[in-house]
Design brief:
The protein is α+β, with helices and mostly antiparallel strands and about 110 residues long. The chain is built from 3 helices and 5 strands; from the N terminus they run αβββαβαβ. The structure holds adenosine monophosphate and zinc ion.
């Protein structure tokens, strides 16, 4: 999608602090971090919301979570704990309509979320 900010990061048209990429996903630091570690794992495929996932994306979703697993270990937040979040649509505060898994860690987080 030409007007999608995450597609532009994937195509290297705009900069980001990329910390991992492979043929299916890219991971980079959130520009407005909400925790000492705040990363986004983004599929290269443009999928607007998790409601748009189909059975074709089963492996992709598994790969996104395995990537989060590895990144949490590499960033040293796996033992202390971390949160993974896919926001979906307005009430969840989704701002970028290209799915992305937030990884948040490095501080104690409240539950329920605000
Ligand atoms: P969401 O509200 O779940 O759609 O989350 C969108 C996230 O993308 C927010 O946490 C933003 O801070 C982050 N974000 C937006 N633009 C950029 C960018 N250019 N580089 C890195 N993170 C971004
Ligand atoms: Zn996109």
């Amino acid at each position: 999608m030409s007007d999608c900010i995450f597609c532009k990061i994937i195509k290297k048209e705009i900069p980001a602090k990329i910390i991992y990429e492979d043929d299916k996903v890219i991971a980079f630091e959130d520009i407005n971090p909400q925790a000492p570690v705040h990363l986004l794992v983004v599929p290269r495929k443009h999928i607007p919301t998790i409601l748009d996932l189909t059975s074709e994306d089963n492996q992709l979703i598994g790969h996104i979570y395995l990537t989060a697993n590895n990144l949490a270990k590499n960033k040293g937040i796996s033992v202390s704990g971390f949160r993974t979040v896919f926001n979906c649509n307005k009430d969840a505060g989704q701002a970028v309509y290209h799915i992305h898994l937030h990884i948040l860690g490095g501080r104690r987080m409240a539950w329920p979320p605000g």
